[in-house]
Design brief:
This protein has 231 residues and is of the alpha/beta class. The protein has helices spanning 22-35, 42-60, 64-79, 85-99, 109-116, 130-140, 157-166, 181-190, 226-230; strands at residues 9-12, 121-127, 148-152, 175-178, 194-197, 217-219. Helix 1 runs antiparallel to helix 4 and helix 2 crosses helix 3. The N and C termini lie close together (12 Å). It binds magnesium ion. Magnesium ion binds at residues 13, 15-17, 178-180.
Length: 231
């Protein structure tokens, strides 16, 4: 199968496609659970944090600030009146470290962007907090390869349709590369686009779903394999 000549744009997901992200969230979750380990077992703290995350995402969107609110909600429920100043600031420190962690590009990504640059219009299609996403984008040093960055609220089908309209392309002209089936693959395929799934070893439970059966979904193991379809 070749996609050569079929697309003008190639859209790349950001977190865990361009740069490492989810493992830092899991590390933060682990630190949170350890902090509360004198109150509840680690598993219980993580499970409640996940519930609070799901409650807060529809209200506050994606990103580390929402994760902070989830942690504070979970801690308040677990500790009750014993949620003191020290615990409050320790939780805030976990999120600070998460937001300003060491930055790592995904292996092979720069080589892929370099090979496609000039042959396609490359764009970032990400979701979440605007400041957070733009800060990571600038820090990545990858912006020279990209024609456009779209920071969507949720990566819903509506968000993708709005992005296509903004760039004056049809939904069928979207070619999306990403690690999340729920955010990068399913919505794109459902509006007629094509998607390449590059799985990441750490996937957030929230993002998990079955890969839709479609001849417009391609599965690769390594990001470098996409060059075989595009060049
Ligand atoms: Mg991702």
């Amino acid at each position: 199968m070749t996609l050569k000549g079929k697309f003008k744009y190639v859209f790349f997901d950001a977190d865990d496609t361009l740069w490492e992200n989810e493992s830092y969230f899991r590390e933060a979750e682990h630190r949170f659970a350890l902090l509360l380990s004198s109150f509840v077992p680690e598993k219980e703290a993580c499970a409640l944090l996940e519930v609070k995350q799901e409650e807060n995402i529809p209200i506050y969107g994606y990103g580390s600030k929402t994760f902070l609110i989830g942690m504070l909600d979970a801690a308040a429920e677990i500790c009750g009146d014993r949620l003191d100043k020290d615990l409050y600031f320790s939780i805030k420190k976990i999120i600070y470290d998460l937001a300003y962690h060491e930055f790592h590009l995904m292996p092979g990504i720069e080589e892929v962007l370099k090979a496609l640059h000039g042959k396609y219009r490359l764009a970032v299609a990400t979701k979440g907090d605007l400041l957070e996403q733009m800060t990571k984008y600038r820090e990545s040093g990858l912006y020279a390869y990209f024609h456009h960055i779209e920071v969507m609220e949720r990566k819903s089908t509506e968000d993708y349709l709005a992005m296509a309209a903004k760039l004056d392309i049809a939904p069928e002209e979207i070619l999306m590369v990403g690690n999340s089936v729920k955010s990068d693959i399913a919505p794109v395929v459902s509006i007629g686009g094509t998607a390449i799934h590059v799985p990441h070893e750490v996937t957030w439970a929230h993002e998990m779903m079955d890969i839709p059966a479609s001849d417009r979904v391609i599965e690769v193991k390594n990001i470098k394999e996409i060059l075989g379809f595009l060049l």
